[in-house]
Amino acid sequence: MDELAAALDALAGDDLPALLGPQLNQRLRLLLTAQNRLAAEVARTLRQGEQASAAEHDGLKTMQSWLRGHGHLSAAEAARLVATGRALEQLPAVAAAFAAGALTAGQAAVIAPVADPGNLARAADVGVDVAEVDAALAVVAARQPYQKLSEVVCGYLDRLDPDGPEPDPTEGRRLTLVRHADGSRTIRGDLDAAGGEKLEVALEAIVQAGRCAGDARTRAQQLGDALVQLADNALASGGLPMLRTVKPHVAVMLDLDDLADPAPGHGAATMGSGVVISAARARWLACDSTVTRVVMGPDGQPIDHGRTKRLVPAPVRRLLDIRDGGCVFTGCDAPTWWCDAHHLLEWINGGETSPDNLALLCERHHTKVHHGFRVERRPDGRWRTWRPDGTEIRIGAALRPAA
């Protein structure tokens, strides 16, 4: 690893402006090959980590959750890496081509469904030699464009069971919401034909109801507005399931002075997810919302409920949602609605049901802190986590210490 880091340092020192076009192209080809080989090693190491239950060392259940927390990967990217690592075990020819740099991580992910246990079983049932398929796909991936490889894989999977029962359409439904630093979201997903039709009809109904003369929005903007309106309607109806004893809602915390002041107040309000917005945007949200007064103590902490209640009252739970923004266990990205309110000092041992003595923890990590792990909130508001052996769990560790 030290040699790899040293090689990367040397590459970073190259004088790129001094290179001509052909030289840059050749350098890029070599870098892409090296990138593929590194990706293959990541997948191989990841699979070994799964088999060794390496995630448990850091208090997590799966390598997929470890990748999200410690590797800062999106849920979709983490799932794709895990599936690739598993598939390469069953496809040695593809694994060898990947390790040699002839395949990209994206190509390996496209091939991965071939090694899904269900597809391997179907291949065995109809007498398909998966070794031959493996070898053929390695050649196609090395010689053909990405789209062609995708078509070949889909064609193979379709022909595995052409006369079988109609597959469950819901199995192919996927949706990911990627939150960016400014709080905006990028939506990616796949829906089956029926599910996609339902969503389109619902969005189109809102789009058509909102049509008016002079509407200069693009079609994409109209559909984006319709999706948000669909969520507004569902939240306002009051018919959505409860989230950890709390009615689903959009929470915003704003000082009283900023609520009354007409100034824009950039960065003055905090939403339930931790995203910071302007006071003007918060006042806009408050126009048709319930405003709850929260009195803060001299140290800036909300006034607590003492020991009169063991169960966390709704107002305190809302404060925790705003303050913690989800599970506070290091490396976990579970949202607030997956979390319990945990007493840092147990109530039975004298701990108060107050924000100072409470932390949001998902079910898994709530169990972990009752079996040796420990979370602690520092004076600066940051949460830290310790293993049972007393070592601290840290995320985002560099390849090697900075010089």
TrEMBL record:
Ranges where the HNH nuclease domain occurs: 315-367
Against Pfam families, the record matches this protein to: DUF222, HNH
Q: Which domain of life is it from?
A: Bacteria
As for family, the record states: Belongs to the Rv1128c/1148c/1588c/1702c/1945/3466 family.
Q: Report what the protein is called.
A: DUF222 domain-containing protein
